[in-house]
Amino acid sequence: MRTLFYIAGKDLLLHWRDRLGFFWWMLGFPLLIAVLIGLIFSGVLEDPTQPLRVALVDEAGTPESQLFAQILQESGSVATRPMSAGEARDAVRTGGALGLVILKKEFRITPAVFSNQRMPVAIAMDPRHQAESHYLKAALNQAAIEMLRRQWFDPAQRSRFIDALLADTGRQGEMSALERKAIEGTLGVLGSFFDAPASGGKRSPLDALSNVEVVPVDAQRIQPHSAFEICFPIGIMWGLIALAAEFAQAIVKERDAGTLLRLRVAPIARWQILAGSGLACFAAAVGVTLMLLIFGHFAFGVRLQNPVGLGLAIPAIGLCFVGLTMLLSVLGNTESSVGGAAWATLLIMSMVGGGMVPQIFLPSWMDLAGNLSPVKWSIRALEGGIWRDFTVGEMAVPCGILLGMGLVCGLVGVAIHQRRASC
Amino acid sequence: MIRVTHLRKTYGSVTAVDDLSFEVRPNETFGLLGPNGAGKTTTMHMLVGLLRPDSGEISIGGITDPTRPEVRRIMGIAPQVLSLYDDMTVRENLMFFGRLYGMHGRRLRGRVKAVLERGALTERAGSLVKTLSGGMQRRLQLACALLHEPQVLLLDEPTVGIDPQARHHILKDIEDLKRQGRTILLTTHYMEEAQQLCDRIAIMDQGRILVMDSLENLIQSHAGKVLVRAELEEPAPAETVLHSLACASGSEWRADNGRLRFETDEPLEAIRQLNAAGLAIRRISIDRPSLETVFLELTGRSLRD
């Protein structure tokens, strides 16, 4: 076992001697990638602690539309800015707002509750923020339910609600005073029921209904706090890609420089030579990942909210890249050919695995192809520890796949090494 | 100590080593002499287990598997290619290789100090290997081989590619090791090295051993007589001169410039006879036959062809 540490120590020392190359390829370059991609996509993913910034165009101007706008603003999910239609479009076009909400002219009562019509509300989103449209729709639904609750509970509003409802359905003159009283009473009871605390609990049934609506909105909020939480795993991948290429070249260099010959005539087993290099590669991979994560945490607020998940992910990623390094090191006979082949292979893996563009923006077919790339599963595992909040069971999937990939690549690489060496 | 029996190694259609058999006795310095491509390095690599022979047997210290750790612990090898880490210091290289041989702590430090002194590298112990001269790198290569005090030393072209001064230093070092009674197997294509260092020599060509014997026996058997060239003080009658050299063969006498050229097994006796005949010698040169002559005799080619 000591021998492995001696060989690993020697490999790390040799890499350390090339400090500029080490820092640039394994720390500087990935950091730059993470920061640049983070800045590029920083507008895409808004900080979920901040409400969505949208422009509000109230074309109806009715008490109901104003109440709706007020409820929307009070929800805390959306920050509305009242504007004219033209101003709202300009705000979205220039990036001043992520989208706009139009309360249409026909917005009079709580929309589409009884008439099975579309909600008289329209939204338009900045093309770069299409993903947030679902969140905005959920927020609008939640506001509509809250509006119903208020209309049914408050007698004055309830009366106006029934008037508006009758006017909308064209039955205003047909209802007798008795019928009207009965409906008002029913809605009043409903309003009181929904507003009253439920038995044994502190929340009203409507609150419970609201909660049902709230859940999908919150569910969408399980997303990164900033673009850097997506881009740092990508940056880490670039660091590991550079590391794998470097170590693969170092294995070939060992052979070319003749030092492998001296190692092979020493009283150590052949597997110990490769295992020692693998140990060095693993230690460097873990070190690079930790350094970048810590830097991202302190400099860019990247959360490390799932230490157990990261504790599983980082070694699994390291082992996968060790196996990959072994395989890459047999892709050529010279240091330069292995370097070129390693970079080409890793670039393709990175492209389909979401290492160039965040996975959430990849087309579905590429996402499918990415299943074969360790880059995809490494990013998935890191995200599980950073913001996806994976359980141990959920983390087992990417980690298991990474270990499997590492094992297969490693075994193939070592077998080829052994075959070449025993000629 | 080392016994090689009917060793054979081919690469496709090329036979690198063909039916090679030899023995290196304990405390002996044995040389494999031959031109580049003769199969010396292939033989060396089979001896240390880097290559697997197609057939034949290798026995080192009675063990027939050279990859066994106990065999490797008694062997030190200085490969032909420099096998040092350029970006590590001299001391770091020695410490690393020493640890691979199971040395630690005080013993390791002591051995490193000793081999540094032997190789005159103490002052450069902290220098990166890439900053050393070619000669120093060769000396460090030898130091690495000696670090674990091996009984058997395999030196594959130990002086290739270095300047005469560095070469002299290394040859002196090997002579010291020889005096210490180490068993040394040396491959070289420099006949002077083989002549200077080896107790017995096997001359290899095209994967085969052509002859194997001590230097004297090889020369006696294959290299012919000593060539003597002399210039007399004064011209003398040809009969007198040639008569006095009855023991010499192929004698040639040119009276015009008093020059004499002949071959003999006993050059000193021939000179004595010339003096006895009253012929004063102004200049004389004696060319002893060398391994080069032996190789030429055996193959019809020069070692450096």
Describe the structure.
The complex is a heterodimer of chains A (423) and B (305). Chain A is mostly helical and 423 residues long. Helix content of chain A is 68%, strand content 5%. Chain A has 16 helices and four strands. Chain A has helices at 2-17, 19-40, 63-74, 85-93, 133-153, 155-169, 177-195, 205-220, 227-256, 259-264, 270-300, 307-328, 335-352, 364-369, 374-386, 392-421; strands at 52-58, 78-82, 99-103, 121-125. In chain A, helix 9 packs parallel to helix 12 (307-328), helix 9 packs across helix 15 and helix 12 (307-328) runs antiparallel to helix 15. The longest helix of chain A has 31 residues, at 270-300. The model of chain A is unreliable at 209-221 (pLDDT under 50). Chain B is built from eleven helices and 13 strands. The relative contact order of chain B is 0.14. With 305 residues, chain B is an alpha/beta fold.
Any idea of the CATH topology of the largest domain in chain B? Rossmann fold
Percent in strands of chain B: 25-35%
Could you describe the largest sheet of chain A, including whether it forms a barrel? 4 strands, mixed
The poorly predicted ranges of chain B are none
Biggest interface and its residues per chain? A-B, 21 and 28 residues
- CATH superfamily placement of the largest domain in chain B: P-loop containing nucleotide triphosphate hydrolases
What are the segments of chain A in which pLDDT stays under 50 over at least 5 consecutive residues? 209-221
Overall 3D shape of chain B: elongated
Strand content of chain A: 5-15%
